[in-house]
Amino acid sequence: MSSLPRQMLVLTRASLASLPRRTAISLSMVLSVALVVAVLIGFLFMAAGLRQTLGTGGSPDVAIVLGGGTQEVGSSIPPEAARSLAAAGTSGGIADDPAGHLLLSREILVPVEATGVDGTSRMIALRGMETAGPALRASASIGEGRVFAPESREIVVGARLARDLGGLVPGKTIRLGPVDWTVAGILSADGGMAESEIWADLDAVRSAFDRLGEIQTLRARLAGPDGLATLQASLPTISTTPLTVVSEAEFLAGQSARTERLVTLFGWPIALLMAVGATAGALNTMMSSVSDRSVEIATLRVLGFSRVAAFTATFTEAALLSLAGGLLGAVASWGILDGWQASTLGANDTQLAFRLSVTPLAMLQAGTLALLVGCLGGALPAFAATRLPLVSALRGNG
After folding, report:
1. 8 A C-beta contact, residue 292 and residue 23
2. Do 315 and 268 share a domain, yes or no?
3. Of 129, 247, 296, 391, which has the most beta carbons under 10 Å away?
4. Closest CA relative to residue 117, chosen from 160, 159, 162, 166
5. Do strands 104-115 and 141-145 pair parallel, antiparallel, or not at all (unpaired)?
């Protein structure tokens, strides 16, 4: 008989040519794999979108000081500590502007309830800050209107949040908590977390929500490459309350990692559980293929075709059907989910809007899972094709 590669090619062609006789069951295998891939890609796109949103805007030149916690809502900084840090000036590691004003902002974050354009209520982040606050966020800029005026009940609304709340524009009012606020501007942040926040004057927020004197975080521009170390060294001298300082980039990266882990923790087990079902479907499909071609396989074996060629043909069919399902699931997911606007609860129990994002790694992981389903589902039937009893298989045709 001819060489092994030629035998493998002949049997593989014959196997694929017989697919029209098994259209329904082959299509079910393709669709089941496509569904597994689509579910996995959905979770991976979500994780990538969250990573992009939370990771955008973090600067190594900006520091965040927290007191008694790792999240803003659970943090509390004594007012005297903030005053001492401001009095230390640039010697404390904090930079100043050309006019000599310290680039330091005392801030507070208040979760408030608001009604979206769809009529549902959601918790959003209202951030009170000092006048230096907006300038400390280099990736954020005012796209419409202007920044809020000091000591006023004006707000700046993130672009994504403005759309979710019914198309807020400068001049419009919205009730947050017990008072009405006037929209002064709309901010853009390259899709970053700031687009899911509302900014206002610190004293106005503290007065409206009865939090006079409260400070949750300090945000500051660092004075040079040694600024973070200098600031860290000065914290124990200004307060008995344990204070920690991290760069803004590190703070946002930590939030991103926690949220991304949570998404993938749910996504992978669900996808793998579905993959088990898809593997069972692939096994059934390929056993049907072997049964349908039993006489054909036996005849070729009698003519001198090897067991390896028979195994390769069935195994290749399973792999190709799975890859077809993986491609279908990937293309469908890409077309439907790429750029999809979604929202979830952020680290401060407030709404975080983000956009699902396509990544090559997600496609590669989903494609690998599809191929694995085909290989596992096709291995046993392929082995069965090599063990067909030739005499009984040929009699079955008679």
Report:
1. no
2. yes
3. 129
4. 166
5. unpaired
C-alpha closest to that of 242 among 77, 74, 73: 77
Cα four-point dihedral sign 36, 257, 57, 59? negative
- Whether residues 216 and 152 fall in one domain: yes
Q: How many domains does the chain have?
A: 2
Query: What are the residue ranges of helices labelled H in the chain?
Result: 4-17, 23-55, 79-88, 159-164, 202-208, 227-238, 248-292, 294-302, 307-337, 360-386, 390-395
Could you say which of 247, 267, 289 is where a domain stops? 247
- Check whether residue 239 and residue 334 sit in a common domain: no
Give the residue numbers spanning the domain of 383: 4-55+255-395
**pLDDT for 341 beyond 50:** yes
**The two three-digit tokens of residue 95, written as one number:** 């930079």
- Degrees, nearest 5: CA angle 139-207-57: 10
Question: Using one digit for the tens of pLDDT, what is the confidence trace for 118-145?
Answer: 778 889 999 999 999 999 998 889 989 9
Q: Are residues 278 and 241 in the same domain?
A: no
